[in-house]
Amino acid sequence: MTLPVKELLLVGENRLRDAGIADAKVDSRTLYCHIFDLTPAQLIMEWQKTVEFDYCEKYFSLLDRRAAGEPVQYITGVQEFMGYPIKVNPSVLIPRLDTETVVEKAIEIAKEKKAKEILDLCCGSGAIGIAMAKNLPDAKITLSDVSGDAAEVARSNVNALNLSKRIDVKSGDLFEPFRGRFSKKRFDMIVSNPPYIPKATIPKLMAEVKDHEPMTALDGGEDGLDFYRWISGEAGVFLKKRGILVFEIGHDQGEAVSKLLEEHGFENVQVVKDLAGLDRTVWGQLAK
Prior knowledge:
- The protein has about 290 residues and is an alpha/beta fold.
- The protein has helices at about 5-20, 25-35, 40-45, 55-65, 70-75, 95-115, 125-135, 150-160, 205-210, 225-240, 255-265, and strands at about 1-5, 50, 80, 85, 115-120, 140-145, 165-170, 185-190, 240-250, 265-275, 280-285.
- The strands form three sheets. It has a seven-stranded mixed β-sheet, sandwiched between helices.
């Protein structure tokens, strides 16, 4: 038994649409490309081909997973971020387009302030630090996450993108990996996309987020601000003189996070909007 590619993709699209998947057409094609290791551009050349039964079964199996709500990125094992393929699995949050605006701002600040030693705290897959390393060739980047599994994913991405000589990967609770016996590791810049979803909001998230992505990467405590309090409260100890702290934030957290930075010795605190016009980044510099 064989099926024409065009017909197979239509079956896939209808299967996902019936399951309530918003991007049914895109996801059905993404899964097909994943099986045959094709780019979207190469898919056009497949229209007149037919697919053998075994591959049809494999495709239907992936469709079932997606229809059940599993994120397509976890099925394919990869998400593009700022043009780089980032490996992902259920131990790490899937990198979002919104975060690219945070990284772009952090890169801009790092160039302006000549930041050479940079920490990506709560790094997950390592997407933020990796993108910064790619765009700041003279910088030394450290990635750190409380999850050992997440740190392994980050390390795998670092190695896959040939950055092991410029990126170090640590695992530990927030700043614990940098507390030396006699001195503390200090950075020119700390960038963090910490958990920031208020606990009561989590049950209201899309099923494919709340049921599949790691809760430790989502839960920011009762008001969503726990990690901002902890990080801003200690960051000054791990930053060099006039060091920079950059946060990704939720769209309604700009004012609260700005106040936290100011309370802990940061000045010139700014809120930066994303492409949708929503607050997405807060950053500040240690006062003199």
